[in-house]
Amino acid sequence: MPGRTLRIAVCVAVLFAAFAAAAYATTVTGTQNPQFRVRVTITPAHPRVGQTVVATFRIANLTTRTLHGEWSFTWSTPQSGIGAAMAGALPPGRLAGETLRQKVTAKTPKGSYVISASVSDARGSSHARARAVFAG
């Protein structure tokens, strides 16, 4: 039993570290469904007044055939947010992608900038989320 307890503790610690790192990472890639890749990037991770936060998402069908499902993205800032989704045919290659920018000013409230994206079909989904924090 002591060996089992140690293995469980190690697994919990590794999972916690992985999720904690992903929450604050600058670039995160998701391939939970091996048919799709989702990559999100946000820089800088800790913006200051005068800098521009740049967030990018890319969604790709990694197969050689058209699949059917849906993709979506969301972008939120301390002041606003935007998102989009599409359902239907998902042809091979790049499905969607966008680069979004937000200037940090002296009037920007403290808070998080978050970019997230996902894609799914009947076999499951791939998703990724990255965050930058403006401390003011």
Tell me the layout of helices and strands.
Blueprint: H1 2-24, E1 27-30, E2 36-43, E3 52-61, E4 67-76, E5 81-90, E6 93-103, E7 111-121, E8 124-134
Antiparallel strand pairs: 1-2, 2-3, 3-6, 4-5, 4-7, 7-8
Strand content: over 45%
In CATH, the homologous superfamily goes by the name Immunoglobulins
**Overall morphology:** elongated
Looking at the overall shape, the CATH architecture is Sandwich
Q: State the end-to-end distance.
A: 49 Å
Report the major sheet: 4 strands, antiparallel
Topology, number of strands: 8
Low-confidence stretches: 8-25
Residue-averaged pLDDT: 86
DSSP helical segment count: 1
**Spatial ordering of strands, largest sheet:** 1-2-3-6
CATH topology: Immunoglobulin-like
Helix content: 10-25%
Structural domain tally: 1
Radius of gyration: 18 Å
What is the chain-wise order of helices and strands?
HEEEEEEEE
Structural class, from secondary structure content?
Answer: alpha+beta
Key structural traits:
136 residues, alpha+beta, Immunoglobulin-like, 4-stranded antiparallel beta sheet, 8 strands, elongated
3D architecture notes:
The chain is of the alpha+beta class and 136 residues long. It has 1 helix and 8 strands, in the order αββββββββ. It has one helix spanning 2-24, and strands at 27-30, 36-43, 52-61, 67-76, 81-90, 93-103, 111-121, 124-134. The strands form 2 sheets. Strands 1-2-3-6 form a 4-stranded antiparallel β-sheet, with no helix packed on it. Strand 2 and strand 3 form a beta hairpin. The model is unreliable at 8-25 (pLDDT under 50).
